[in-house]
Amino acid sequence: MNFFEMAKEIQDELISIRRDFHMYPELDFDLKRTVGQIKEVLEKEGIEYIETSKNGICGIIRGTGERTIAIRADMDALPMDEKRNCEYSSKIEGRMHACGHDVHTTVLLGVAKVLNKIKDKLNGNVKLLFEPAEETTGGAIHMIQEEVLENPKVDAVIGLHVEPNIQVGKIGIKRDVVNAASNPFNIKIMGKGGHGAYPHSTIDPIAISANVITAIQSIVSREIQPTNPAVITIGSIHGGTTQNIIPDEVKISGIIRTMTLEDREYTKRRIVEVTKGIVESMRGSCEIDIQESYPCLYNDDTMVDILKNSAQNTLGSENIVMLQKPTMGVESFAYFSLQIPSVFYYLGTGNKEKDTMHPLHSSFFDVDEECIPVGVAVNCETVINFLNNVNNG
């Protein structure tokens, strides 16, 4: 069964679907049009589905066996203007598919079309997970809470992301940790305001903040094992109104990125300890809010092997790039990877001649659409190998 040829047969249709998504991007959970287009395709193919997670969709293709594998695609765009001028540029001001979620959704619809035609050959079921709000709070956690991984119980999940740094026609795979965990934080430091000429009568929150910012940077450089990637970034600091007034408070916002659960918990704890220690020693007070965002994304070794072997059969071993380093970016697919064996890979979209080398989240971002049948074929081959090879159980 040649899935690449089957995907090429519907390539023009899939490109048309992708360009429609690209022209009419939607944000967060507000995906009414996008979801409507997905439903239309599923209904035309006779694929059953349920609505979930505030505009998420869970479709299912029922085969003849008991095992179930899921494939996830995110649907939302970004709140930014597109500067690339082409026939399918965004028609919605201030919105753009600059992260390739239009491609992810299209690939999953292509998989749905191909596998639905051969469902009698599937020794199990395939769930199609269309996730909202990946760029914000993540729809995955809501989908899991609403039991999309149950009835029938999902045994494994596949995810992908477009990657302009990988040449079109190739894919990238990494073992173990793929993406970092994220913890946004806010710190409010309170002092006692007053005249800038009489600092002794004040408790200066700006001076305190300067010490806090410098000190918490040493958590990564001096307390985290040097071989473990970690980042603490201060992205915002606000306090004061003019040169000769010491303000009452300063607000600091930032982000923590870590690669292990141990480093994540340690860094959160130390930010609190270091901040409180400095603030109190300088006579101030503080409020610290460290939020729980996306966890680390882990690839299961067995699932990596199945996908790698499937991709080699489909694309050839020369088109498989084994990635050595994780990325400090985050991915809501991580919530699925914590629940069941998962594999997340990168779909090459780069092509200098077609000017598709611009980075993700760039206002000039685009893909070489030859990537679409590649993603469809790799996913289909992986599904077949997982469901129909008893050695994978």
Automatic annotation (TrEMBL):
**From which domain of life does this come?**
Bacteria
Question: Which N-terminal residues, if any, form the signal peptide?
Answer: none
Q: Which InterPro entries match?
A: Amidohydrolase, Bact_exopeptidase_dim_dom, Peptidase_M20, Peptidase_M20_dimer
Return the protein name: M20 family metallopeptidase
Organism annotation: Clostridium ganghwense
**What are the Peptidase M20 dimerisation domain coordinates in residue numbering?**
185-274
